[in-house]
Write a structure and sequence with these properties.
One of its GO terms (molecular function) is ATP binding. Keywords: ATP-binding, Nucleotide-binding. The protein is α/β, with parallel strands linked by helices. Helix content is about 40%, strand content about 30%. The protein has a single domain, classed as 3-Layer(aba) Sandwich (Rossmann fold), CATH 3.40.50. Strands 6-9-10-3-11-12 form a 6-stranded mixed sheet, sandwiched between helices. It starts with a strand and ends with a helix.
Amino acid sequence: MTLFDVQNLHVAVGGTEIIKGLTLSVPAGETHAIMGPNGSGKSTLAYALAGRDGYAVTQGSATLDGLNLLEASPEQRAGGGLFLSFQYPVEIPGLSAIAFLKASLNSLRAQHSEVALSAPEILKLIRARADALKISDEMLKRPLNVGFSGGEKKRFEALQMAVLAPRFAILDETDSGLDIDALKIVSESVNALRKPENGGAERGMLVITHYQRLLDYIKPDRVHVLAQGRIAASGGPELALELEREGYDKYLRAA
């Protein structure tokens, strides 16, 4: 069953077309990777799907589990199960990390007409997920991402994903700023989410990266090459190894 489907997507930023007719489908239970050089449109695709201001979809369609993403607000997209892990997570002074998680989770529950969790219930859930990511109580009490290292920001995003349990996650260069130990910890958390919980529905993921390194830990079912705003090639995990050896030149020339 196709969970996430994008057809002939065109996206412009500041009047310049960046995504130029991109088509991509991810079945439930699969993880796909998008690889491409700088300027190919990887982050533009992620931001447009999440509904960020300034990223104008001029043509095409995008659906998640039947939800028309392009007609939904960013909040509705999140409520429908879409999660975006940012390449550069923002800092929010004055809001503790744990308060952010509590507000986010109960906001999602409200969209699904579910009863809000109490503070003790949420704290128990957060601590269970945080332990696996080696995130301390002290870090949870700090203002969101303020003073966090690059690795800490990415580990906290992995915690957000573990707590919110989205239907479809887009990971935009989630390996950026991670040393090898942190990369292993974050990847283990991401891989755990690939498995349905308590007989629940299968999830999907789209991993955006420059390098094969991340895909050694989060193993994709399919790999796509993005060049000049289009999918230039698709294949199995071996395609990522080819890109690591040979680079993107032949795909850029073809595009």
